[in-house]
Write a structure and sequence with these properties.
132 residues, alpha/beta, five-stranded mixed beta sheet, 3 helices, 7 strands
Amino acid sequence: MVSSHPRTLSALDHARILRLLPQAGAQDLLRDLLDNADLLPPREVPPGLVTMYSQVLLADAGGGVPRRVTLCYPDDAEPAAGFLSVLSPLGTALLGARVGDEVYWSSPDGRRFGARVLALLFQPEASGDFTL
C-alpha cells in the first residue's frame, strides 16, 4: 500500500518500470500506482521525491534505528546490502513518495509494516543525472 496522495513519477522511471511488468507478473499495487501517477520529465523532478536509484533514510513506524535503502531495478537488487527492487512490497511503497511521507506495505505472509521517509540522501535527478 502507498500513501494517500497521488504519486508523481519521473516519466523515464515510469516507462522503464512499465516494461518490467509483463515479465515480472504484474503486481496490482505497482500497476495501479503506474496507471494513476502524475508524470514529470526527469529535469522537472523535485529534489524531495523518491525516484529510481534514490537513497532513502527510513524510520520504522514502530521505532528502531533508521535504515538506509536504495530503490533499484530487479537486476540490481541486493536486499542485505540495502538495494531494494521496485518490484518488492517496500520498493513499490517507496516509489514516488516524498520526504516526510509515511509508506505502508505488506509482506508476502500478510504482515503489515510502515515507515516514514526521513530524508533523501541521494537522488539522481538532484545530482544532475537524468538517465540513471
